[in-house]
């Protein structure tokens, strides 16, 4: 048994000894084990029945009976198993709560429903309808919610109205490629059974009488009123930004502004997240405590700090209400509320324990949050920052307080730099995994933009909200001053050379390993934490995009991409299925898409992709199929292919229809490997029945 320079003892006994020393931090691993059970549920290709709920009480009984076992390792394994089964069971319960019928095929019908939410974008408007009725004979299941896109004016519509319109309805879109973001699963956990677009004007056929009978509708009315006021009172260039941070609706932000914010690493300022909740809560807390401190009798006889925390909590609840109460907003609310509740109970406000409790609550209530980029990135940033300030926070505070104005300013700037750097480093793996890119100058942009957001924009936002009934435009104009500076920072940094690094994505397994190793380093306080560092560096610096195939084919077969080299991708068209093409670019990285190449030979009958000894045919018309059957090793057709084409491997219209988009890797041996959307998803409640048909 040896000892490293960090004092880590090799061998099982040494590791267990150091873990025993950190016994007070064992609880912090509970949400990690819970998340493992949730991840297990979402990675199954079969549907677990409610009988699996019995695993949790069974594990609880075994864990209680084993509490007196002398072997500590066995007890740890049993309690870990309990947490895993609890996460798995939470998914089953949540699934049955949100479960609703899903549309199976395209339908054109007349829809009548209550308007629940309205999102006004630049070119289109999205409406969420509930209490749905369809015309007789449409053979549509009893959908709970429906999301429609309208390209005509909907300014006269507001939540609570009963609307009627003719619409084209579609099942929620499937993943753009195997392993990609699953929109059908996302819609399922929002109880949205179909999406579509209106093909007629909306008729108002009624309205819910009396007080709105649903908090969601009441919240939506508030948000609609706020958006209308912002559009009327705020400067045009900042109106979309203000609407986004007030109501969570980013639809009114110009595309150029959104792209600049993303490429500069400032997109998080547009989403109602822990940052905004923290800013709003912190401002209300500080102002309330300051005002109470001016009243000597109250300050000396009452716990004004706790009173300020309760007022901040009330303000946060109001902010959550007008933000639409989305899952991401609720998650941020729980995180920040835990901080103020800790103050009320004389606990350390910002600690690992409070964040862990918030994570447990969120994962148990909304287990599907684990798969979202916002959950992963927000908790990665919070955990990393708490770990940082557990290590250097006291020293930084001593440095700041031990000098004059210069030291206070230097300490503040250093704190922002450390916070931006560590948060950016912690969220980078998740940004690459979900978006295939990182903002190279995020640290610089956040260094200047975040203080402006917290010290100028959000305080004036509170003032604007308080004076909104008086139709006063001045607070909005003051907000716009700060927002214009933030947009200028985003514009400049996003246009610097190499501002965005497109890296392509990587496997879920790799992300999981990076997360576990990072958690190992952040949670443990003894020297055992350093054991994860070499493995973490190996995973990061030996990074290779591992998911990009040689060929991608869309579900319809109308679009396909073929790898020409590491720098170029052949794209069959730039006019069809543009959304899928954008999603594919995240997978491949931002390599140039070309529509001609010496490796792809096209004529009016179809295309041939030639790679070494392999010939992949993409026929356009039936006449070319006979020749393709003789010369190709693989045929990918958007048309049905006759069964007598027995020479090559065939992927035709019915394969694409039943199995979804295909990824194909060409092997050096002349063989190939195929993955489909359905291969990875299997038979789950959110998957349309046609995908769940038996495989050939």
Automatic annotation (TrEMBL):
Q: Which Pfam families match?
A: Competence, DUF4131
Record domain ComEC/Rec2-related protein: where: 246-525
* Topology class, membrane: Multi-pass membrane protein
Where does the record place it?
A: Cell membrane
Q: Which organism is it from?
A: Sneathiella marina
Q: What is this protein called?
A: ComEC/Rec2 family competence protein
Where are the bilayer-spanning segments? Answer: 26-44, 50-69, 266-292, 304-322, 350-367, 409-432, 438-467, 474-490, 502-523
List the keywords (alphabetical). Answer: Cell membrane, Membrane, Transmembrane, Transmembrane helix
Matching InterPro entries, A to Z?
ComEC_N, Competence_DNA_uptake, DUF4131
